[in-house]
Amino acid sequence: MDLRQLRCFIAVAEELHFGRAAERLGLAPPALSRQISTLEDELGVALLTRTTRQVALTRAGLIMLEEAKGILAGMERASRAVREASLASGKVLRVGAIDAASSSFVPEALVTFRARHPGVEIKFVEAMTTPLIQMLEAGRLDIALTRPPRKPTDCAFEVLRVERPIVVLNEAHPLAAREHLTMHDLIGQPFVVPSKRIRPFAYDLVMTYFESVGSVPNVTIEATEKPAMMSAVAAGLGMALAPDWVSRLSFPRVTMRKLRGALLDPPPDGALVGVAWRPHQKLAARDDFLAILRESVTLVDEDNVLPFTLPRTRSKKTVRASTPAGGA
C-alpha cells in the first residue's frame, strides 16, 4: 500500500465515479482502475462494488476511506512540521504571487528585503490565486500576493492595491486617437476577454464593468494569458480591458488609453491585489517582508482621480475569508 494508491482510492470513494475521479487526479481511467485493483489485492478485500451504472463503497471501503484520510492528513501534518522547523531559523522566505503583483510592486519589495536581509534566501513562485492559497494553507509558502480568496480559509488577507482598468486597442483603431475613453465608448466593439475557466477574477471583472453601463461585451475571443490577449488586439480581433500595471509593458501595434467615468463603488475583488499569510505561524522574515509591502505599495494610482472612496488605513482591511467572495 502506498500514498498514491490511497489518493486514488479517496478520489474514487468521494466521487463514486471513475471518470470524474480520474479527471480530478489527472490520470487515465484505466490507470486509476489499476491502482484501486492493486490496493484491493494487497488488502485482500473488495473496497468498491462496480456496475455499469454506479460505483459504491463496501463496508470495508467505508472503513478504509476514513483510515486513508487519516493517514494522508497525518503525512501532511508531518511534512508541514518538518518544513516549518527547517524555516524556523529565518534563512528562507518563500513568496508566491499572481502576475498582477509580480509585474508591478513585488520586484521592488524583494530588492528592499534583500538589501535588509542579505542572508535570507528567497524562493519565488508565480501562479494564480487559488493554487497560491492552497500552497499557503499547506505550508509550502510563507506569504502570497493574491486576489481575495474565493473560498473560506484560515489565512489572513489584507488589501494592498486597487487596480484601475485601462483600454487596450489596436493602434490603428479610430478610438486610439482619443486621449481617454469611457465604458460607453466600448459598447458594441469587438472584445477580447479573459478565459472564464482559467481567469475567473479577470473575466468577472470585465463583465462587471460592462454591467455598470447596462451592457455586455461583444466577445470575439477568450484569451488565457496577457500575451495572447495582446496578440489578438494587435491582429485587430478586438479591444480589451486590462489592469493598469499592463501599461508598463510594450507590444507591437498595441496602444493603451485610460478609462474615465464613474465605474465601480466599492471596487470588486477582481480589482484588488493583497497579501495573504498564516497568522498563527511565527516567521520573522515573513513579518519583515509584510512590513515592507505595507510601507511601499501604494493603495491606488495617485495620478488618477478615483471614482470611489477607499480607507487609507490598510491594516483595517485585514480579514479572514469566511464566505465565498465574488471574484490567477
Structural description of this entry:
With 328 residues, the chain is of the alpha/beta class. It has three domains: 83 residues, Winged helix-like DNA-binding domain superfamily/Winged helix DNA-binding domain (Arc Repressor Mutant, subunit A), CATH 1.10.10.10; 123 residues, Periplasmic binding protein-like II (D-Maltodextrin-Binding Protein, domain 2, 3-Layer(aba) Sandwich), CATH 3.40.190.10; 96 residues, Periplasmic binding protein-like II (D-Maltodextrin-Binding Protein, domain 2, 3-Layer(aba) Sandwich), CATH 3.40.190.10. It is 39% helix and 21% strand. A six-stranded mixed sheet has the order 4-3-5-13-6-14, sandwiched between helices. β1 and β2 form a beta hairpin. The C terminus is likely disordered.
Task: Provide the helix percentage.
Answer: 25-40%
**Backbone structural class:** alpha/beta
Shape: globular
Taking all Cα atoms into account, the compactness measure Rg is: 24 Å
Question: Low-confidence runs (pLDDT<50, min 5 residues)?
Answer: 304-327
Largest sheet: 6 strands, mixed
What's the CATH architecture name of the largest domain? 3-Layer(aba) Sandwich
Order of helices and strands: HHHEEHEHHEHEEEEHEHEHEEEHE
- Mean pLDDT level: 85
Which percent band covers the strand fraction? 15-25%
The CATH class assignment of the largest domain is Alpha Beta
The separation of the N and C termini measures 36 Å
